[in-house]
Design goal:
- The chain is α/β, with parallel strands linked by helices.
- It has a single domain, classed as Rossmann fold.
- Helix content is about 35%, strand content about 30%.
- A six-stranded mixed β-sheet has the order 6-7-8-3-9-10, sandwiched between helices. A four-stranded antiparallel β-sheet has the order 2-1-4-5.
- The longest helix has 16 residues.
- The radius of gyration is 18 Å and the shape is globular.
- The model has no long low-confidence stretch (mean pLDDT about 95).
Length: about 220
C-alpha cells in the first residue's frame, strides 16, 4: 500500500537548511497497525503529515497503491487524501459551533452523497461508537474521552482505508485512552490500516509493529 524511498524534509535556516527527516525508506501494507515512536523533535508528526498527504514538499519517493504521491499536484494529492485517509488528532479538532451530529455529517457533506444517505451513515456511526445520546450536544458539553470518540467516528465515517492518529490519547487520562485504543484496534481488525504516532509504550502495545525515529533518521523500521 505505502512505499517510501529516501524521503527527506528540510527547511531553510540561516543560509543553509535544517533537516527534519532524512532518507526515510519504509513499507506499510494494507491491514497493518503501525506505531511511529521517537523523542520530541525526532520527526514523528512530520512523517505522519507526509504519509497523510498534507505536506507535499519533501524529497524522495512516496508511492501510495502505485500512485507517485511525490509527483502529484496539490489538487491530485488532496483527492487521493480525501478518498483514502481519515485523521484523529490529539486535540480532537471538532468544530465547537456544530453539534455531534453536524460534526459527523461535515466530511460527508464534502462528497456527492444525498442527504438521506448522509443521515443514515451518521446514525450508523452514532450507534457504532455508542454516542447516540450525544448527537444534539456541542463539543464543550462532552468529556475529553467523548470528544475523542466523536473524532474517531468522524475520521472513519467516510470509510477510509487508512486512519492516521497523532497522539490519540495524549489529552486523555488512561481509562479514557484505553477506550479509544480499543476502538482503533477494532477498526484494524475490520480491515482498516492504522498508523499512529505516540510516545506512550502502552499505546504502542496495541499495534503490531513499531517504527522508531531519532533526529529525523529511521532507527528501526520494525520489520522484525
Amino acid at each position: 500500500m505505502i512505499r517510501m524511498h529516501n524521503v527527506g524534509k528540510s527547511y531553510p535556516y540561516q543560509g543553509g537548511r535544517t533537516w527534519v527527516l532524512r532518507q526515510i525508506s519504509l513499507a506499510i501494507d494494507a491491514g497493518d497497525y503501525v506505531t511511529i515512536m521517537g523523542p520530541s523533535g525526532s520527526g514523528k508528526s512530520t512523517l505522519l503529515s507526509i504519509l497523510g498527504m498534507l505536506d507535499g514538499e519533501f524529497e524522495g519517493e512516496y508511492h501510495f497503491d502505485g500512485e507517485p504521491v511525490h509527483g502529484l499536484n496539490p489538487k491530485q494529492r488532496n483527492r487521493l487524501n480525501k478518498d483514502n485517509i481519515g485523521f484523529v488528532f490529539q486535540h480532537f479538532h471538532l468544530l465547537d459551533e456544530l453539534t455531534v451530529f453536524e460534526n459527523l455529517d461535515l466530511p460527508l457533506s464534502y462528497r456527492d452523497i444525498p442527504r438521506p444517505e448522509r443521515a443514515a451513515r451518521v446514525a450508523e456511526a452514532l450507534d457504532r461508537f455508542q454516542i447516540v445520546g450525544k448527537k444534539d450536544l456541542y463539543p464543550v458539553q462532552l468529556s475529553g474521552g467523548q470528544q475523542q470518540q466523536v473524532a474517531v467516528a468522524r475520521a472513519v465515517i467516510t470509510e477510509p482505508r487508512i486512519v492516521l492518529a497523532d497522539e490519540p490519547t495524549g489529552s486523555l487520562h488512561w481509562q479514557q485512552g484505553e477506550r479509544i485504543m480499543a476502538l482503533l484496534q477494532a477498526l484494524n481488525r475490520q480491515g482498516t490500516t492504522i498508523i499512529q504516532v505516540t510516545h506512550d509504550e502502552r499505546v504502542a502495545g496495541y499495534g503490531e509493529r513499531i517504527i522508531r525515529l531519532a533526529d529525523g533518521w529511521l532507527s528501526d523500521a520494525g520489520n522484525g
